[in-house]
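Design job #97: recover the sequence.
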């Protein structure tokens, strides 16, 4: 028995049927995708276990201790404090004149460090990028990188020995006919000494990211700029700097986030009671209040206040960067 079939109308063969048409709506997420990726690349994911444990143990779990900023804590008692006191310790440091002096010192040191230590690695990277002799370039890089690998104790020791009353710097001033300067004991010199040592220690290491970013710039852009008659300075301004702008903005946001966290170790090693008026910052004040004076709740309240300011700064800098130049961390 033969079965007759009705021929399809022209153009209907390539047209999908209504039943076969895909349904529009929310796309169901592939719940097995991450499992498949984990099974395939488990070696790579295993490398993240130790960093995640480090941040969990040393960064996130200690945050629980911030509760003692609102509770009265006594050494030997409960780790979460004895009784709830609310904002008592917050009101204490906000009404303390010493805290506001320390706060101003932190702003001064943080601002000077940001103004001088952030652009110098960029300038050094641009200068190294223009050096054509590879031997000279490697020598300058090695010499500038070396201070980064020295411990802060050694850097502070070298700084204090160089600027001591009978040190090389004062000896040179004596040869030039000047009286010795007490760099370490004078409060007015501390900020200059701190920022200068910070530049010496971090400028060379900071150029690594910028030199890596410079290698990603297309050489055709320089060739087009030369054809248009641009000199070296105009090439740097119109080609080089825009090419490394995302790296610059990212590092600037990170530096703004640590604006209040002025180097505790170096300040602690360089300052002394004579330089407290300009050298004492929030981190050292918290150390003396918490560890030396056993006022742990008071110190925790100040530390929490500093952390909140840092969070506000990095969030504001990230938002401003995203809206103005289109580059941000998140």
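Job complete. Output follows.
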């Amino acid at each position: 028995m033969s079965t007759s079939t009705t021929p399809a109308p022209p153009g209907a063969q390539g047209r999908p049927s209504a039943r076969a048409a895909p349904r529009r709506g929310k796309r169901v997420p592939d719940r097995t995708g991450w499992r498949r990726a984990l099974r395939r690349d488990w070696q790579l994911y295993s490398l993240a276990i130790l960093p995640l444990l480090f941040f969990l143990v040393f960064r996130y779990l200690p945050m629980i201790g911030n509760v003692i900023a609102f509770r009265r804590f006594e050494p030997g008692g409960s780790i979460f404090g004895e009784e709830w006191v609310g904002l008592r310790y917050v009101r204490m440091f906000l009404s303390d004149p010493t805290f506001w002096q320390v706060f101003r010192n932190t702003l001064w040191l943080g601002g000077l460090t940001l103004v001088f230590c952030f652009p110098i690695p960029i300038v050094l990277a641009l200068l190294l990028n223009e050096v054509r002799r590879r031997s000279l370039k490697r020598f300058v890089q090695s010499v500038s990188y070396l201070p980064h690998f020295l411990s802060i104790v050694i850097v502070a020791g070298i700084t204090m020995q160089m600027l001591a009353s009978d040190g090389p710097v004062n000896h040179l001033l004596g040869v030039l006919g000047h009286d010795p300067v007490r760099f370490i004991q004078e409060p007015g010199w501390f900020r200059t000494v701190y920022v200068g040592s910070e530049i010496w220690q971090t400028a060379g290491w900071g150029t690594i990211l910028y030199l890596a970013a410079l290698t990603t710039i297309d050489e055709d852009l320089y060739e087009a700029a030369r054809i248009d008659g641009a000199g070296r300075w105009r090439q740097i301004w119109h080609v080089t700097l825009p090419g490394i702008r995302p790296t610059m903005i990212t590092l600037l946001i990170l530096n703004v986030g640590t604006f209040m966290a002025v180097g505790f170790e170096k300040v602690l090693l360089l300052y002394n009671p004579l330089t407290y008026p300009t050298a004492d910052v929030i981190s050292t004040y918290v150390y003396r209040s918490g560890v030396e004076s056993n006022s742990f709740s008071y110190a925790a309240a100040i530390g929490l206040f500093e952390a909140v300011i840092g969070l506000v700064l990095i969030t504001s800098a990230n938002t401003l960067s995203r809206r103005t130049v289109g580059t941000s961390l998140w």
